[in-house]
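Action item from last week, closing it out:
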Amino acid sequence: MTQPVTEAQYLAAIARIYQGKTPIGIAFCVADGYLLTCAHVVSKALGHQRKSYQILAQEMLGQKIALEFCGEGQVERHHATVVYWRSPAQTEPGTTDVDVAVLRLTEAMPRTAQLLVLKRFPAFWENTFRVSGTPAKVADGVWAKGNLDGTSHDGRLVQMVAGPGYAIEPGFSGAPVWSPSLGDAIVGMVVARDKQREEERISFMVPAARLRPALDAVELETLMDILAPQINVLKDVISTAYSIAAGDRITTFPISTQVDPIQALRENLASLLSIPNHNPTSSGPLPFAVAVLTLPVLSLPEALRNALTVWLERRVTDLTQLLATAQQAVTAAAVQASTQAHLLLWVRTSPEYASQDRYLVSAFCIPEPNTYNPANGTGCEPLKAVEAFRDAAKSDTIARDDLEKVLQTCLQEVSTSYKQAIAHKELILELILPIPLLNYDIDQWNEQSPRKIPIHLQHLLQEVDTVSIPPIGYRYQVMLRMADRFDPYFAHLRPFWETKWKMLKTAIDTRCQAKQVLISGHCSNFQTILAQDDCLGMHLNTMLPNASTEQRLLALILGATPTALWLRQIPSRSKYKKPFSDLLEHSVGDIVCKVREARRVAFDKQGKLHFGRHLALIWDNPQLVPPEAEIANTLDMPQEMP
């Protein structure tokens, strides 16, 4: 329940806004580092001659103004930037707030500053108000008091009639309206006065209900301030937390498709604010913050957990009860929620046609990895696109030169036949390949065939350094997998592979650097090192002859080691060693995203010299294998005769 406001708290929450050396209005603290005021006060402080409703938001956002706190008799000069601006013309239809701006302090809030909570009321007739402002030539501030009347006919403003003493005049705009008769609550913000009938001493406030959009913007910004610096910890669960917060309303308010995790976080929080909900504890960013705090898969840093807890405590009456209620639902939803779908392309050697570069190929779509069971194939859909490329006369094998077209056709099938199942999910490409194919630049394959582009556009793709089709490594996370692991000969290594994968997940959760997890593959005894129980991966920052690279890849299988990062080629005249080393400075859990970022930069620069074009990454998850491979590994191996 909102605590009654005292005079000391009121005065400690307000700041004077200046134009030069002259105070022209008031702002008041509504969250740590954020203040509410009138848009016209801000435009005046910046010296604009136009009316505030004639100024577009993009002109004002980021502008800086001066203000002054006077808590406990000590004057503190501060600056703030505009982060929210709404000043629509009175006749603009559909607007919910009017003449409002939100400011963010560029320095820490004064130690003595207090926060004010606005409270909504359905009616105001015959209730009292008190307001502090800085009218002309009274820089230290004075009080005005009087009675509240009803709302204006358009419902936007509440009429105020000043009693004896000071009336509302320039210098009061932006001040919080304090009503002793409504439980000593802050009920609105002073916005205007009747200039035509000054003798009537009538002015107007924006009621708290009409300030909701601005306060929502504050909610978003304060939560972003907490979460954005920890985006590497949170990025893998942002969509899960959003799905939990949105619930069954997610079909109308889908998950953000932004690749950048900070932009995705901001878009998701903004979407939650637009979801209508009359329960304040299950609307806006609140349920998102609760989900992050209670998701069982997260081991939150102590500082982040404390900051989130404080943020929630300021907004709910009983946080302990809210978390207890949410825990069970969040846990259940987190188990079901998945933000990824997977396309598995499984290419394996056909002994009969190996010399002809022909392969046995299968493809699968796994829309929901959390429910996939490789033992019986449930949750996995075989893709029919592969069938068109199989040659029945050659044991249903597919030529190596057709593999790119096979993947393109599979992507088309997934995007049409499984559109609903993978809606709002990131599609991960898992290319399960024999060792000889792992060093090919498969992530540079085209997502679509250039030959199928409309005829009148084809010539544009022929122009050098102008337009080209983004490769699959630009659009998707492309993970190489090792098809030879599924050979029955290596079936006994499966438990060790699973154990190392669990160790890798622990390293990800504890934010271990990649260089602490991936050992160098340049050592002479690489077979021994890769087979060690604590070796989880390998990196190669210089190119080796194909045979030497393939030896190390085979050593990964023999050592049951799940991951590797290497350069397929060394780009000439390119400084590749430092950016490669920089990759290894990141958390091992970030490597997949960082590799895609490097591939995107390489494509954007339209050059083959960038090291990102030549990165190869193996990321071999034993829980996400083709169902046929799982079945094959359960078959008894033939015993060799002496």
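Closing note: The first strand starts at residue 14 and ends at 19.
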